[in-house]
Every structure is written in C-alpha cells, then in structure tokens.
Amino acid sequence: MLIPAQGQMLIGTRIAIGIPKGTYARIAPRSGLAYKESIGISGGVIDADYTGEVKVIMMNYGKKNYQVQEGDRIAQMIIEKIDTSGMMEVDNLRITNRGHKGFGSTDLWPKQTIAVEQVQPIMCQLYANSRENRLFSESDIRRNPWLLQEEVMVSSAMISKALLQEYKPELLKEVQNVSRDDMDWLAREATLKDLITRGKELLTNWQYKNGFSYFKNGLYIPANDVLKTKKAKGCHDSKVAGHFGMEKTIETITRDFYWKGLTEWINDYVRSCDECQHNKSPRHARWGLLQPLETPCAAWNSISTDFITQLPESQGYTQIMVVVDQFTKMAHFIGLPTNATAKDVANVFLREVWKLHGLPTESYLSWMQNSQGNFGNPYASC
Length: 382
Ligand SMILES: [Zn+2]
Fold this sequence. Notes:
Layout: E1 2-3, E2 8-16, E3 23-29, H1 31-37, E4 39-42, E5 45-47, E6 53-60, E7 66-67, E8 75-81, H2 156-161, H3 169-179, H4 183-197, E9 206-209, E10 212-215, E11 218-220, H5 225-236, H6 246-256, E12 257-258, H7 262-271, H8 274-279, E13 302-308, E14 319-325, E15 331-336, H9 342-357, E16 362-365
Parallel strand pairs: 11-12, 13-16
Antiparallel strand pairs: 1-7, 2-6, 3-5, 3-8, 4-6, 9-10, 10-11, 13-14, 14-15
The structure holds zinc ion (ZN).
C-alpha cells in the first residue's frame, strides 16, 4: 500500500486484542519510522470493550510517498491504565501559579519541586485540663486556643478515613474472657497470627491488633449472646438509637463491631424487639380470614388424616395414623412403625379405611414429616 506524501491511510493489522477493564491501548508511532520517513500515527486509542481488528491511521508528513508492505513494523501498542478516581464537578478550580496563562508562561515562574508525602493524620482534641494539650497553645485556653503545629491539620476527607474507634478496656476484657469458649473466634485469631508471623498478607478486610481481630475495622465479637445483646441494645434500644429498622441497626453496629452471622442475628433481634412490636405498624398485607371446611353431606365422604409421632414403642409401633370422618367424627387409629414409608401408609389406608368405607371425595392431610421424611403425600404413590 502506498501512502502519498502529505497524505494518510487507514492500515489494517489483522490483529484483534482483548484488554482488561480499566485500561486502554494506545497506538504510538515508532521513533525510527518517524525520524527516517516522517511517518506519524494518529488517533490510535483502543477501548477495553473493542474486540475488532486493530487499524492504524498512518500519516505521511514527508515529501515522498511511503510504501507499506506486509510484515512491516509500523507502530507500537502501549497498554495504559485509566484513572477516573475522585473526578467530580466543581465551581472553582484551585488557584495555581500558571492559572489560565498560555504557552511559554511556565518559565516565568521559578521552578518548583513538590514533594508529596503520605502523612498519617493526627487527630487532636482540646482537653479541659491542660495536661494533654500537646498540640494546642494553652496560654489562653478558655477563650482562644490555637494549634501549635500547623502541619497536623488534616482535611475533612482524611478525618473521615482516620480510624476513630477506641474500645473501652472493660469491653476488651469481656471479649477476651468470652472468646475462650468460641472455637471459631480462636481459629480466626490463630490464622491471623500465623499469617503475621510468616510475614504473609492478611485476609481481605481482616486485621489483628493486640490480641483482637477486626473485620472491616469492626471488633470481632465472639459467639456470646449476652455480649451481643449488650451491643445490639446500644445500637437499637437506646434513646439515641431510637429503635431503627433492621438495615439501619446493622449499619450502626457494623461501624464498630462484627460477629459471625451478624445480619441474621440483628434481624432476629429487631424482629423480636418488644417496643417495636408495640409501636410500629405492620407493613405487610392483612392476613386473610380463616377458611372453614365445608360441611360434608354424607358419612365417609370427607376425611382428614393426621399423624401422632415419636411415641414410646408398643407392639413395634411408634406412630398413630388418625383418620377421621368429617361428618360423623368417627375415627380409625392405625399403628405404624418408626420407619414407615409412603407406600406403607397407602397400604394401611387401603386395608383399614378404603376396604370399609370406599374412597372419599375429599381428603385433608395434615402435612407433617417425621424424622425420616417418609410422609409426603402418601396417596401420591397410590
Ligand atoms: Zn425496637
């Protein structure tokens, strides 16, 4: 293919690529080609979701035509990460030295090198007694305290990221005491400790500090209902908490705590809260009215079957199948062994009921399963 002087051409490469999300591929010129032949590459960006053929726009800035042959190295591809983190719309941009000044203006200002350092934010509080006030001037503490060190000031974004939790020593002691009975808690501690001693990376979202495990910055509470109830009370029952629903209670609790099966546990707790039940109106549709059975018109037309199970053994039987006629209230009591199957039930029904009264038009079955799960619908297999 011939790219005319001062012209351009779209060249197919017969290559298709798939690149990871959050990246894009940039088609860049080759320096040799650019220098020797004045060949540039334009508009070459391939998005992660494009899987078609990679095509390259070649620009010939030179004064003579350029011949492209199959197998020629014409461009290079660079995979780059896309950083869209923290982008937001603002009314004003921060003020810089250069501002809106155009080309050539950068040299007018002395060159500056900005060193960026990751500083652990320090939280400072002003104490009523002046002993702890390392960071504040105490000269006029009542009216006008000011920071002694400018550099400890942190942005609100950093404050929100900083770990503010401090657990009471009594709570930590309690956690330590009850943790001895929780095998899961101890196993988790052992795993984390082991990872630390081997210098390995901890499990995602887990931390281990001074004998306590933390999940997503929440203290891992052992399986102890007294302790859990205490924490749940604070986040649901107290005047400050105000009997929030399940989701909000879970959100508040997980700010500081974590335990195994927390969601389920809190849901149960909120559902069974006495005050909530008294004061909160139900949000579901009304339960319907009870539907009474129709009065049958003849004897043994409509029957009900029920089972009395887990009885002490008598003549090899541990269960009683009770078949009652809805019209006369006459009943048959039929003994069944523990491991009776649906087939056995059907057989005794045939022998004890059907033989005497014929097949009923209606049959109500108390849907109960014994430990073997044998009684589903015994007639299903008839
Ligand atoms: Zn409540």
